[in-house]
Design a protein that fits this description.
Length: 276
């Protein structure tokens, strides 16, 4: 039986991609574990059937090189592509650095599309699966996260369009509406430094990225998603992680004022803001 293969973007140690690489390796797949800096994938390189590849999803030449490597290793097929790489940026809309917000979109949105395009022929040949790591953040207007949340909204929607477009080609697409999962995304986010004239200066110390980010353990999330990609039937929106039930089943029925209150209560320091 031919060994199945999976390529995962964003496999730095401590995150979802790293946990997925470990889980797929346990299941006997050939794993292409990628990161912009492969030295950050930790112990993955010591595992059998794991191939570390440098992949910057914002760099067309890097994507092309990774695709060439996978093509040579698999005979032109890729069974599973997991678009996981992503970055976070905290900042009020009025103070947003547009250049930084555009760079976030380069990773979180265009990087997903560019990577999928590069591996499309291999996925079609394998009748494979694309799993796009979306987020319930794309459905929740959390203060200070406009750039990140809107990028996830874009991916949630793009992934569903892709599902319809790839179905006639025999490729399944999973839109993974992810809730709270233990990862390093908040730890890797840069400190919030507000302009001197910002209306939000009084709460600057309270709105920093949290180093105590908690949620569903990444390994449990990885087991669940691996099952979904390998079951031969799952497609479309799937939900997993902390607060997914609230957003999926309760949020649509809450009055706006209560939903707003819950969002503000989950944004450190923002509730301290007083009207001018």
């Amino acid at each position: 039986m031919t060994q199945k293969s999976v390529l995962i973007t964003g496999c730095s140690e401590g995150g979802i991609g790293h946990a997925l690489a470990v889980e797929y390796q346990k299941r006997g797949l050939k794993v292409f574990a990628t990161a912009r800096n492969p030295s950050k994938i930790g112990d993955l390189t010591s595992l059998p059937n794991v191939i570390a590849i440098a992949l910057d999803v914002t760099d067309p030449s890097s994507i092309a090189a990774a695709a060439k490597t996978v093509d040579a290793e698999t005979g032109g097929k890729l069974d599973i592509l997991v678009n996981n790489a992503g970055v976070m940026y905290h900042m009020p809309v009025l103070d947003m650095d547009i250049a930084k917000a555009k760079q976030l979109y380069e990773v979180n949105v265009w990087g997903v599309i560019s990577t999928t395009q590069a591996f499309a022929d291999m996925l079609v040949k394998a009748k494979g699966v694309v799993a796009n790591i979306g987020s319930i953040a794309g459905l929740s207007p959390l203060p200070l996260q406009a750039a990140y949340n809107s990028s996830k909204s874009a991916i949630n929607n793009t992934s569903e369009v892709l599902r319809l477009e790839l179905a006639p080609l025999g490729v399944r697409v999973l839109t993974v509406l992810t809730g709270g999962v233990t990862s390093e995304i908040e730890n890797n986010a840069e400190k919030v430094v507000l302009p001197e004239n910002s209306y939000y200066r009084s709460i600057e110390k309270d709105i920093q990225p949290s180093s105590n980010w908690t949620g569903l353990p990444a390994d449990k999330y990885a087991e669940w998603l691996t099952d979904k990609t390998l079951d031969g039937k799952s497609t479309g929106q799937i939900w997993k992680g902390e607060s997914t039930g609230l957003v999926r089943w309760v949020g649509p029925f809450l009055p706006q004022w209560l939903f707003d209150y819950l969002l503000i209560a989950h944004t450190k320091g923002f509730g301290k803001m007083q009207p001018l």
